[in-house]
Automatic annotation (TrEMBL):
CDD domains with a match to the protein in the record: MFS_SLC17 (cd17318)
Organism: Drosophila hydei
Name of this protein: Sialin-like
Matches recorded under Gene3D superfamilies: MFS general substrate transporter like domains
Source taxonomy: Eukaryota, Metazoa, Ecdysozoa, Arthropoda, Hexapoda
Transmembrane residue ranges: 12-34, 123-143, 155-175, 182-208, 214-234, 276-301, 313-334, 354-387, 407-432, 444-463
Topology with respect to the bilayer: Multi-pass membrane protein
Record keyword Transport present: yes
Pfam families per the UniProt record, alphabetical: MFS_1
Length: 474
C-alpha cells in the first residue's frame, strides 16, 4: 500500500503529501501537454507552400522563401525541407486557432476556483483533465470537417483547463507544510514543464512518423491511466486521506494555519490590496514572455530559422529538462535558507522573480542581433526558457503567502488577467509576420516582450509582500 508507516522508518513508502505532489504534477502535465501540442502540430497541419507563398524549385530541389527568412541549417538534407500538411490556413487564422484555447480559459477560472474552494478541489481538477482528454480524442475528427471544429475543441479545453491552477493552489494550501512549501509548489507546477517538454517533443516525432491526427489520439489515450490513480489516491485534505500516517497528518496540520474557505470573498479589499496588484501585474507581464517562448519560438524556428518539424520539436523541448532541474534546485535552496532564517520569504520571492525576468529579457535582446546563426539562437532561447523556471519560486507562490483562505480565488483572478497575453500574442505574431516573416519583424515582437518584462520587474520589486493580509479572514 502507498502509505507511510507510523514510525516513518520504511523508505519504500511515500508520504501522502508527495503522492499528491507527484499526481498533481502529472495532472498538470496532461492539461498543459494537451494545451501546447498544437504549437508544434500546427506546423505539420499547415500547407506552408500554399499558405505562405513558398516556391518549390523543381529543378534543383531547393526552397526559396519569398519572405527572406534564413536558409535552413547546413545539416538539413534537401528531402527534409518540404513538409506540408493538408490545411491552407493563413498566418492570421493560425493565430486565431492558437489563441482560441484562451477564450475559454479566461472566462472559467474564477467560477471554477470558487467551486473548488467550496466543494472539492480534487474533483474539479479531475474534471479539468478529463474534459481535455475527451476533446483531444475528438479533435482530429472535427478538424477534418472544418477549422471551426478545432476552435470549439480548443475553447472547451480552455474552459476546463481554467480550473487546473486554482484547484492545485487550493490543494497546496491544505497539504504543503511551510518548511516544504516552495519545494512542493515547484514539484507540482513543474508538471507544466514536464507536459510541455514531452508534448512538444512527441508532437514532432508522432506527426512525422504517423501523421498529425495521431498526436491527439496517442496523447489523449495515455492520459486515461492518470484519471484512475487520481480518483483513488488523492483527497482534498489530510483529514480525508487514509493512506497516510497520523504523524504526517499531525505535522501538516501543526504547520498550517486552519484554512476555512469563506462563503463571501472580500472582493473590495482584495482589489484595494497592493500585495494583490503586485502579483497580478507580475503574472500578466511574465505570461507575455512565457507565451513568447512557448508559442512564438516554434514559429520563429520554422518561419525564420527554417528548422524542419523534427528539429523544431527537439530544440523547443530540450530546454525544459534543465529548467526542471534548475527550478527544483532553486526552490530547495530557498526552503533551506528560510528554515535557517538566512533569508526572508519575500526576498526569495523577489529574487526568483528578478531571475525569471532579467535573464529571458537579455536573451531576447541577444536574439535581435545574432541573425541566422541557427544553433546560437537555440542556445540563447534555451537559457531564457531555463531562467523562466524561477517564476515558480517567485510570484506564482505568492498567492498562498498573502491569503491561504482565498489562494484559489487569487490564482484564478491573476491567471484570468494573465490569460490576455495568451490571446494577444498569437494574434500579434500573426499580424506582424503575415507576409513579413523576417528577423526584422520578430525584433519588434521581442522588443514588446521586453517592455512587459520591465513593467513586471519594477512593479513586483516595489509592491510585493509575503505577509498574510488582514482580509484573509474575510
Amino acid at each position: 500500500m502507498l502509505y507511510v508507516t507510523e514510525n516513518n522508518k520504511n523508505p519504500l513508502y511515500l508520504p501522502a503529501r508527495f503522492i499528491l505532489a507527484f499526481l498533481a504534477n502529472i495532472g498538470l502535465a496532461i492539461v498543459y501537454g494537451l494545451k501546447v501540442n498544437i504549437n508544434v502540430t500546427m506546423v505539420a497541419m499547415v500547407n506552408h507552400s500554399a499558405a505562405q507563398g513558398v516556391e518549390h524549385n523543381v529543378l534543383d530541389g531547393n526552397i526559396t522563401n519569398r519572405q527572406l527568412g534564413c536558409p535552413p541549417p547546413s545539416d538539413t538534407s534537401p528531402n527534409q525541407l518540404a513538409e506540408d500538411g493538408p490545411f491552407t490556413w493563413s498566418d492570421t487564422l493560425q493565430g486565431t486557432l492558437l489563441s482560441s484555447y484562451f477564450w475559454g480559459y479566461m472566462v472559467s477560472q474564477i467560477p471554477l476556483a470558487r467551486l473548488a474552494e467550496v466543494y472539492s478541489a480534487k474533483w474539479v481538477f479531475l474534471g479539468a483533465a478529463a474534459v481535455n482528454v475527451i476533446c483531444s480524442l475528438l479533435t482530429p475528427i472535427l478538424t477534418n470537417l472544418h477549422f471551426s471544429g478545432l476552435i470549439v475543441m480548443r475553447v472547451l479545453q480552455g474552459v476546463a483547463g481554467g480550473a487546473a491552477f486554482p484547484a492545485v493552489h487550493i490543494l497546496i494550501a491544505k497539504w504543503a507544510p511551510q518548511n516544504e512549501r516552495l519545494l512542493i509548489v515547484t514539484l507540482i507546477y513543474l508538471g507544466t514543464t514536464v507536459g510541455t517538454t514531452i508534448s512538444i517533443f512527441l508532437s514532432g516525432v508522432i506527426s512525422v512518423q504517423f501523421g498529425w491526427e495521431a498526436v491527439f489520439y496517442i496523447m489523449g489515450g495515455l492520459s486515461i491511466i492518470w484519471i484512475i490513480l487520481w480518483i483513488f489516491l488523492v483527497q482534498d485534505n489530510p483529514d480525508g486521506q487514509v493512506l497516510m500516517s497520523n504523524k504526517e497528518r499531525t505535522m501538516i496540520k501543526k504547520s498550517l494555519a486552519e484554512i476555512r474557505p469563506k462563503s463571501q470573498v472580500p472582493w473590495r479589499k482584495i482589489f484595494k490590496s497592493n500585495a494583490f496588484w503586485a502579483i497580478l501585474i507580475a503574472h500578466t507581464c511574465n505570461n507575455f514572455g512565457f507565451y513568447m517562448f512557448l508559442i512564438g519560438i516554434p514559429f520563429y524556428m520554422k518561419q525564420v530559422l527554417n528548422f524542419n518539424i523534427s528539429k523544431n520539436a527537439l530544440y523547443s523541448s530540450i530546454p525544459h529538462i534543465p529548467m526542471l532541474i534548475f527550478s527544483i534546485s532553486l526552490s530547495k535552496l530557498f526552503d533551506v535558507l528560510q528554515s535557517r532564517q538566512k533569508i526572508k520569504r519575500i526576498t526569495a520571492r523577489k529574487i526568483s522573480t528578478v531571475i525569471s525576468t532579467i535573464v529571458p529579457g537579455v536573451c531576447l535582446v541577444g536574439m535581435c542581433f545574432i541573425g541566422c546563426l541557427h544553433y546560437t539562437a537555440v542556445v540563447i532561447m534555451s537559457v531564457g526558457i531555463i531562467a523562466g523556471g524561477a517564476s515558480y519560486c517567485g510570484f506564482l507562490s505568492n498567492h498562498m503567502d498573502i491569503s491561504p483562505n482565498f489562494a484559489g480565488t487569487l490564482m484564478a483572478l491573476t491567471n484570468t488577467v494573465a490569460t490576455i497575453p495568451g490571446i494577444a500574442l498569437p494574434q500579434l505574431v500573426g499580424y506582424i509576420t503575415n507576409g513579413n516573416q523576417t528577423i526584422h519583424a520578430w525584433r519588434l515582437i521581442f522588443g514588446l516582450t521586453n517592455v512587459m518584462y520591465f513593467v513586471e520587474l519594477v512593479t513586483y520589486t516595489i509592491m510585493a509582500t509575503a505577509e498574510v493580509q488582514p482580509w484573509n479572514d474575510g
